[in-house]
Structures are given as structure tokens and as C-alpha cells.
Write a structure and sequence with these properties.
One of its GO terms (cellular component) is plasma membrane. The protein is an all-alpha fold and 129 residues long. It has four helices and no strands. The longest helix has 37 residues.
Length: 129
């Protein structure tokens, strides 16, 4: 029963947390825009300010229910990517050439069909191109 109470209190606070996230992100965009017009010489200060506000927003988002779910998903995705058997350079090169050759052949076939259809329509309508 305690777990459901904690989840409901977390859920009720999530709206406030997401509001803060949006507030910080809007603050970063608006602050960068206005600082760009006012303080052109302090580019580094603008960059640090925007990065700090985005990092704060990401930190707040990470403690929400959806944020925790996303972090767990990212960890699981990273584990799955490590399991992938990546092709060798030779396999990737050969596959690339096969795709290019098939694409070129398909393009030539479509070009030929287009030419045939243009002549056929021109013959039927009496309009030559």
C-alpha cells in the first residue's frame, strides 16, 4: 500500500517537475536570444548559460516517472547494441556496391518505362514532345 502512495505522490509532482523543465528550456532559448542581441562579445557566457539551463532541465526530467523509464530504456538499448554483430569493412563495402548497382538498374528500368509511356501517351493524344 505504501508503494501506491509513493507512486501517486510522484505522479502528482511530475506535472510540477515537467513545468519546471519547460520553464528552464524556454528560459534557455529566450535568454540566448536576448543575450545575443545585448551581449554579442560574451559568446562563451551565452553557451555556458544555455548548457547549464539545459542540464538543469535534463536533471529535473530524469527524476520524473517518465524520465526514469526513459533512462531504463536507454540502458537496456545500450546493452542490446553491444550484442549486435557488426559487419566487417569488406562486407559493408560489398553491400554498398550491391545497393548502388541495384539502384542504378532500377533507375534505368524506370527511365526506360517513362520514355515508353511518354511516347505512348503522345501517340494516343497526338501531342509530341
Amino acid at each position: 500500500m505504501t508503494t501506491s502512495n509513493e507512486n501517486s505522490s510522484n505522479s502528482s509532482m511530475d506535472g510540477l517537475k515537467w513545468g519546471l523543465v519547460v520553464l528552464f528550456l524556454v528560459g534557455a532559448v529566450v535568454g540566448n536570444y536576448y543575450a545575443g542581441e545585448v551581449i554579442e562579445a560574451h559568446f562563451l557566457a551565452r553557451v555556458v548559460g544555455v548548457v547549464a539551463l539545459v542540464a538543469i532541465a535534463a536533471g529535473i526530467a530524469a527524476v520524473t516517472t517518465k524520465g526514469k523509464t526513459f533512462i531504463e530504456f536507454a540502458k537496456e538499448a545500450r546493452i542490446e547494441v553491444r550484442k549486435v554483430v557488426w559487419p566487417t569493412r569488406q562486407e559493408a563495402t560489398q553491400t554498398t556496391f550491391i545497393v548502388l548497382a541495384v539502384s542504378a538498374i532500377a533507375a534505368l528500368i524506370l527511365w526506360g518505362l517513362d520514355g515508353i509511356f511518354v511516347r505512348l501517351v503522345g501517340f494516343i493524344t497526338g501531342v509530341s514532345l
